[in-house]
Every structure is written in C-alpha cells, then in structure tokens.
C-alpha cells in the first residue's frame, strides 16, 4: 500500500461525508432549491471547488445526500433492532422505532426532495427507488421485530399502515412540535397492534357483518 | 340595489375564484416558489394587473389559496358526511373519506406550502392555524360519523391516528400512484377501527377479541 495515498483518500472521504451531512441540514432548512453546491460547501466549511469535485451538480449532491440519509437510517435501524426489549413494551418500542424513522432532520430534508420531485419528473424517477428501498427496510425490520406472520389476513396491511402512520406523524410534526400527542398515539397504536397481531392463525376478530 | 354595480362585483368574485383555483394547480405543480402572482394570473387567463388587485403578493395569494382549499374541503366533507351509508361498510366509507381529505391536487398544493413553511417562520406562523382548523374539522366529522365515544380510553388517539395515517398515505402517494395498496390499507384499518371502537359501552358489530 502506498503510504502517501491513503491519508489523501481518507481526507477525501472525510470531506465527502462532511458535505453530505451539510447537504442534509441545508435541504431541511432551505429546501431543494436552496441546497446549491455553493451553499452546502459553505455550510460544510469546504471550498466550492472541492465540493464540485465530489458533486458536480446540485442534483448529484441532493441524491447522494438522500442515499447518505438512507445508509445512516439503515445503521440506526440495525442498532435500534438490537436495542428493542423483549417482552412487555416491545411492541411500543418497535412502533417508536418506526415513527422515529420518519422524523428529525433527515425526514425534513427528504420531504423537501419529495416536494421538489412533485414538479420534476426526472428527480422523481431517481428518488422513487431510494424511497422504496427505505420503505422495504423499515417494513422488514418491523415484521421481524414484531414476529408478525404476514400470511395471516390483515397483518401485512396493518404493518404497512404503521409505516404510513409514521410518515403522517412526521408530516404533522413539521409545522408544530407535537411530541406529547405523538407519544400518546404511539402508545395506543402499540396496544391495537398487539391485539391485531395476537390473533391465532386464520382467526379474524371482526366477523363478516351479517347486519 | 345599484343594478350597474352588482354584475361588477359578480365579475370580481368570479375572477378571484378563478385565480384561487389556478393558484392551487400552480402550487401543486410548481411549488411555492413557482406560484408567483404572474404565473397564477397566466394560468387563470387573467391579466397580471387584475390578479395583483386581488392579491398584491405571492404570499397573499398562497394563503388565500390554502383558505380556499380548506373551504372547499369543508364543503366536500359536509357532502361526504351526507353520503356515508349506515350499517355495513360505514366505517370503511368514513376511513376512505378521511383518506380522501388528504389526497389529490389540494393535498399536493398544501404540501408545497408546508415544505416552503419549513424554511420560512412567518409563513409557518400563518399556515399553522389553518392546518389546525382543517385537522379539527376532519377529526370532528370522523368522530360524529363513527359514533366514537372519546371518553373511552384509546378512542381519541385511534381517531387521531386515522388522520395521521391519511396524511402519510397522501405523502406516499405523492411519488408513486399506490391506489391499490391504499385501498387494502383503508379496508384493514376500518376493521381495526371497528374492533377498537366497538368496546363497550356502545358495542356494535365487532365484539372485543377474546382470543
């Protein structure tokens, strides 16, 4: 190995990581239009030239930032999975984990990209597969942690609904800080989830309405 | 009444309504930054001067468009309430009504305003009360239609969760058309809602799960 090269590669990786972290913050705070290479370089304390070497265009930078968020989310998910308690409180911890996956600065940054993609078909085409990957990973983690049997009617939809609920809570939280409300909903949804998932295979608690 | 004045007021009202409808479309398609008074005037087929007479600034126009959407949503809600069937299928119809309240061009337009408000505290302060009004109205309609007793523990949170679910489904739908998935989730959510709401007192068609 060339001893002179490694530190340079190391520095380059560190610069790249600093730019991506800065891009997430700038996206969340100023929106997709405001997340120019220049603005992100300044936020990261990196020269504009160095930033452009890594990310020639604003779109390159935004998409790399989205991938960076997803990678980080994947890691957090794996750490979260390891930390979920067994027994009582497990379901609530899982629901909280899913809800947390759609919150914070990452969610705010991603939302700005989704909003921009609504009027930009090319951007939409590029971010949709990334979002689908994120959805699949969170879904898979939730199913595993809940020990949910998706062959039981309704279980798959209920786990999916948990993700949609989390996304909606993230959106509600964007305008107003509704932490206490969110905590109550998480708690109640965990109870509901327990009762839906605890059905014996094939059983449904709501018989076809004969009325 | 001055016979010459009334038609003018009428025309003015019609112009205003045309501008607001156009503003919703432009917001949804081009985002908050793209919804300038000039762009909306052009979309509405109204002169820029006439548009500026009604709405001096882009912000005036955007906020009026949001109010316009909420008024329209309120009307749709009242019509929807009248159309919800009694008996079997009622809960699913209510869930669909709530989900529909967070979809379509109005939702996409509102989302663009929320995204813009994330980086604009003044706009955020102005749109938050409007969003809260919308949330309260949909919540109230859902509670009434479901005959939900919010004094029963968990009922209030579950109805609120229905709104958050709807918001999340709207957001998921922004990038990909997921109508079939949404229909399955609505159906399952209605079953879950029935079992949560059907707790005594006031038990209806879905007995508590004893399994």
UniProtKB/TrEMBL annotation, chains A, B:
Keywords: DNA-binding
PROSITE patterns, alphabetized: HTH_TETR_2
Gene Ontology MF terms: DNA-binding transcription factor activity; transcription cis-regulatory region binding
Protein name: AcrR family transcriptional regulator
Domain HTH tetR-type, residue spans: 13-73
Annotated region of DNA binding: 36-55
InterPro entries: Homeodomain-like_sf, HTH-type_TetR-like_transc_reg, HTH_TetR
Gene3D superfamilies on file: Tetracycline Repressor, domain 2 (1.10.357.10)
């Amino acid at each position: 190995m060339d001893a002179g090269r490694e530190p340079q590669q190391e520095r380059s990786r560190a610069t790249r990581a600093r730019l991506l972290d800065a891009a997430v913050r700038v996206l969340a705070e100023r929106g997709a239009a405001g997340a120019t290479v220049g603005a992100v370089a300044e936020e990261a304390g990196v020269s504009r030239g160095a930033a452009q070497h890594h990310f020639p265009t604003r779109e390159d930078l935004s998409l790399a930032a989205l991938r960076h968020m997803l990678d980080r989310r994947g890691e957090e998910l794996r750490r979260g999975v390891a930390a979920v308690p067994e027994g009582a409180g497990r379901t609530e911890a899982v629901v909280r984990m899913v809800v947390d996956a759609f919150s914070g600065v990452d969610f705010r940054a991603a939302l700005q990209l989704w909003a921009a993609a609504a009027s930009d078909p090319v951007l939409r085409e590029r971010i949709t597969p990334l979002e689908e990957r994120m959805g699949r990973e969170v879904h898979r983690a939730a199913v595993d942690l809940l020990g949910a049997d998706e062959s039981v009617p309704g279980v798959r939809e209920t786990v999916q609904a948990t993700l949609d609920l989390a996304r909606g809570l993230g959106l509600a939280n964007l305008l107003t800080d509704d932490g206490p409300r969110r905590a109550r909903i998480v708690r109640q949804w965990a109870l509901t989830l327990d009762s839906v998932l605890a059905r014996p295979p094939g059983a449904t608690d709501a018989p076809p309405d004969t009325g």
